[in-house]
Specification:
By secondary structure, this protein is mostly helical. 73% of the residues lie in helices and 5% in strands. The protein has a three-stranded mixed beta sheet with strand order 1-3-2. Strand 2 (66-68) and strand 3 (73-76) form a beta hairpin. Helix 2 (38-48) packs parallel to helix 4 (86-103). It is elongated.
Length: 226
Amino acid sequence: MMLYIVLMLPALLLTLWAERKVKGTYKEYSTHPAGVTGAEAARRVLDAEGLQGVAIEAIPGQLTDHYDPRDRVLRLSQGVYGVRSISAMGIAAHEAGHAIQHARAYGPLKIRTTIVPAVNIGSKLGFGLLFLGLIINQTPLAWAGVILFSLTTVFTLVTLPVEFDASDRAKKALVAVGLADGGVAGGNDSKGVAAVLSAAAWTYVAAFVASLLTLLYYVSMVSGRR
């Protein structure tokens, strides 16, 4: 139990800090006006990349924005879709970045999409097999559970370059289409977008750290048992 606390406390603190940072930064730049709504920004970015076929829809909730590669639909939350703010513009462009990745067959995104079914199975069965193996003293079964859970860690690791690349595409695209800084990088618009997307990136870093430390704890459990 002490080992679990030692391993997971840093992850918990990082997660709480990341959530507070992303909400605070989002709130701050939601008060900074932009010339277009989030939906309009996403449309401009997508059209500039020849992705007129990608639809944009409004969905309920806050920070529920995402791109659905199956339906080729970009879904934006209430605080982004029809809002003219730096936060809305940055988040919308980030999600448009995922659509661009999909269209360009971006490697890490293809890997992440491919392993999703296995990750779903691993997240549901891994924990159960691990503890069943420990309870009935079947180490191979426990290791099978660890391996299944490790797929979640792999998923969070692959997610990092996917999210960082989408943010990079978003920042460049907003300048390229003239929505940020009048088409010249380095102005206040770009700095605000970068701050919002950087804060959001920390949530993915925290998720990876938490998953990795949990995996290490499970490995220590089975190794100690052995």
